[in-house]
């Protein structure tokens, strides 16, 4: 927790009594709601009963000891006192333990958001609107019969002219593959252009629905190659890479070979934590500063962490970093997210915390759950410095003879090129996290192959490549430092068959049941190790003047352009 020791704080630590008041005002159920009398009066009654019964029994047992009367011989009054003592004890233990038990059983599992929890944070008018969306819509009729009973061509025509909404096909037909086929026909009718080259069969459309894509009409084929083995941290990995750039996989494979023959690479996970930064607004900058001081009080952080952590078995709040822009406050939450990339998980926790803070700061206006200080899918200084997702450093020492035989260059040439290109050249360009040769090439290829969010390649490719001569200038120490690799092995595109197969090839498919979070950490290390291999190979090709020759050999199209044009004309004629 970042703490600011300067400046007066006008918001004090929230006491348990205040927290209880906030919970009551928020309408959340309390343990004491089950009691027939006010909790204060009930507590006093049972405390008096417990100590009175205990005092009476102690007095009676003292008299029995003096008169040598057996203690187990009880009269009616002693039996009644014993019953009262036991009952009072059970009540006191049960009451003070019920909150703990209730919190434990209320912890939700990971996955889709718990709608009941989310609904507690939605204003009443929004809840009413949400309930109206649950009212079943009447089935779509076409030509006097249910939509599914019509021919595909008739449905496609209706979609094309707007009679039937395209987005409703999956729900109305109950067949995702048929819906995609009909929508595809409708698009061809509407645009007058053919989609013959876009594959339709061979994919499970049901696995896409509601998770990966909407308005589906097919899928794009991207070749998947493998590089390796990548010897990383004593383990060998065969790395899948989905790309249409010739020479990329071959180049990365050469880098893996150089690493392998030099004894392998080593990686270190420096930091882990997904971020989400909502923006809130106050009437004055002074009030915004009061919220900042409140969040920077470590005692308040403990309370907020409990509220945040209740939303998931794996989400654990690590930090809240608050900055101001006038009367706007940006709250950057950082949390662990297990094996998931975790954007949904952390967003749910953030929403719950904001609802709690709203009662303490009723004049606070929530502008957006994301205020771009996260920062997601953007090249930003905050990610470059503070990190986001997994922060990894990966290194290897390449033997001089390997640099010469495998990479066809020299240690001194690589060191000089790295300084002039990756460091000085990137600085002149005003690069932000781009002090490397082509980290994004490797990151994008692995992201697409393993079902990651391709757009997060922007910050995940933040990388600085360092090369230094060691061992008297004979060998090369090379490293990549990547502060914001955002990956997961569950959720999103990772559950699609092709992407799951690639994760399985790496040994990180799904969640790690024995050590939650380990699979996603391993995947981040593999990404960094693969980037290291790619940097080594490309830099060597540049130093040796091989880049142009390699791309002319592997990345030039030899297809007959005229034949391609002829096929295009035929496709258009077919549609017409």
TrEMBL record:
It is an enzyme of class 1 (oxidoreductase). The keyword Endoplasmic reticulum applies. Keywords: Endoplasmic reticulum, Isoprene biosynthesis, Membrane, NADP, Oxidoreductase, Transmembrane, Transmembrane helix. It is a multi-pass membrane protein. It comes from the Eukaryota. It is found in: Endoplasmic reticulum membrane. The keyword DNA-binding does not apply. SUPFAM superfamilies: NAD-binding domain of HMG-CoA reductase, Substrate-binding domain of HMG-CoA reductase. It catalyses: (R)-mevalonate + 2 NADP(+) + CoA = (3S)-3-hydroxy-3-methylglutaryl-CoA + 2 NADPH + 2 H(+). Its main location: endoplasmic reticulum. It comes from Sphagnum jensenii. Belongs to the HMG-CoA reductase family. Residues 1-27 are annotated as: Disordered. Pfam families: HMG-CoA_red. The chain crosses the membrane at residues 37-58, 79-98. Pathway: Metabolic intermediate biosynthesis; (R)-mevalonate biosynthesis; (R)-mevalonate from acetyl-CoA: step 3/3. Its EC number is 1.1.1.34. This is 3-hydroxy-3-methylglutaryl coenzyme A reductase. InterPro entries: HMG_CoA_Rdtase, HMG_CoA_Rdtase_cat_sf, HMG_CoA_Rdtase_CS, HMG_CoA_Rdtase_eu_arc, HMG_CoA_Rdtase_N, HMG_CoA_Rdtase_NAD(P)-bd_sf, HMG_CoA_Rdtase_sub-bd_dom_sf.
